[in-house]
Amino acid sequence: MVLDLKRLRAERIACGITQDEMAHLMGWKTRTPYAKRENGLVDIGANEFIKMAKILGFETNNLDIFFTSDVPEKEQKTVKT
Predict the structure, then answer these.
(1) Which residues contact residue 62 at a Cβ distance below 8 angstroms, ignoring those fewer than 6 apart?
(2) In what residue span(s) does the HTH cro/C1-type domain sit (predicted)?
(3) DSSP string covering the chain, please?
(4) CB count, 10 Å around CB of 65?
(5) What is the largest CA-CA distance in the chain?
(6) Which pLDDT score is estimated for 2?
C-alpha cells in the first residue's frame, strides 16, 4: 500500500488548513518541513502521519482512505515469461 499524498493534500484543503498552519500544528516553525512531506520530497514517518490525520479529524481506525494499493508505474517491474 502506498500513501496517497494527493488525498492528504485534498483533505487538508477541505479542512481549510494551509500548509503553514499544518506545519505549526505539527510543531514545526516553518511550512517547509510539511510542504516537503506533502510533495513527496521527504518520507512521512508513521507517527507523523498519524498526527497529521488526527489534525485533519481522522481517527486511527479510519486511515485507509489515505492509502492506495496501486503501485506507481515507475516502480512496476516488467515480468518476463
Answers:
(1) none
(2) 8-63
(3) -EE-HHHHHHHHHHTT--HHHHHHHHT-SSSHHHHHHHTTSSPPPHHHHHHHHHHTT--GGG-GGGEE-PPPGGG--PPP-
(4) 12
(5) 53
(6) 86
The full set of domain ranges for the chain reads 2-71
> Of 78, 75, 76, which Cα lies nearest the Cα of 40?
75
Measured distance CA(64)–CA(36) in Å, rounded: 22
End-to-end alpha-carbon separation of the chain, Å?
26
- Cα–Cα distance list, 6 to 3, 25, 69 (Å): 9, 20, 14
Position 61 confidence tier, pLDDT thresholds 50, 70, 90: confident
In CATH terms, the fold of domain 2-71 is: 434 Repressor (Amino-terminal Domain) (1.10.260)
